[in-house]
């Protein structure tokens, strides 16, 4: 079982960067997910039911958002362009990333990701600026959404498992998350390239209406993507429970870098226990939350944004993996100092 799961983990980490798998990423991850639950002998009817039901809400949200943007494209574009031109462009991008990161804890990470792709679809950034903004915004959303049990499944599971009150995570990790979200916003403002306003208006007027078929196909791909991640998480859970849970929290902090390809909610469910102290829970959660932004499968916002804006796994990883690693190191040093 161990050898089989390690092989699957390696394949999931590296094959998405090949052209063949990149074009069929959802199918590839689905096959790997099914293989994982078979190898670990974790396949049950309950897991199958969860895999079929879990993606429905996400898929519907993406489908409805795609349809609404198509139907109200002109007024939405006008409103977004007006806001982006009312204040300095870099300031607009920085504030947009910061605000999106914080409100994701209230409106959910899914809705925040949909807002992100809607705005970026209108702004018509150059490719480099667009990828950097997506990556930094997804990091901010992934971190901010963890502050309340509304924001994302990870925080919902942790609050439920620990039987804690609504603002528990805000009190526990808020002092670490809030500076991180602000930092990603500042970095976005610094790296983005200010477009020519006349060119921006001209490009906006040339925006094509997205066909219904593309909206539906993208929604179905996201359904298959989330279903695949559910299987992967379930397949690796027995391995995690057997070999990882007795490790030091700071060791788990680094091992949780696998959250870049596995569902961090599943990892949190396996690793977090009411018997743990707050510092231990803090260390584990920060590792899960930060590393979730490093690759496309790591978080739902990454999946939604990359799918809509056609960002490849390699394009995303070139920016996100180094940033995520640097942020992991910074937070690790902070945790060592604080203890």
From TrEMBL:
The chain crosses the membrane at residues 28-45, 52-72, 92-119, 131-148, 168-192, 222-240, 252-272, 284-304, 316-338. The keyword Acetylation does not apply. InterPro entries: DUF1646. Keywords: Membrane, Transmembrane, Transmembrane helix. The keyword Transmembrane helix applies. This is DUF1646 family protein. It comes from Ornithinibacillus sp. 4-3. The lineage of its organism: Bacteria, Bacillati, Bacillota, Bacilli, Bacillales.
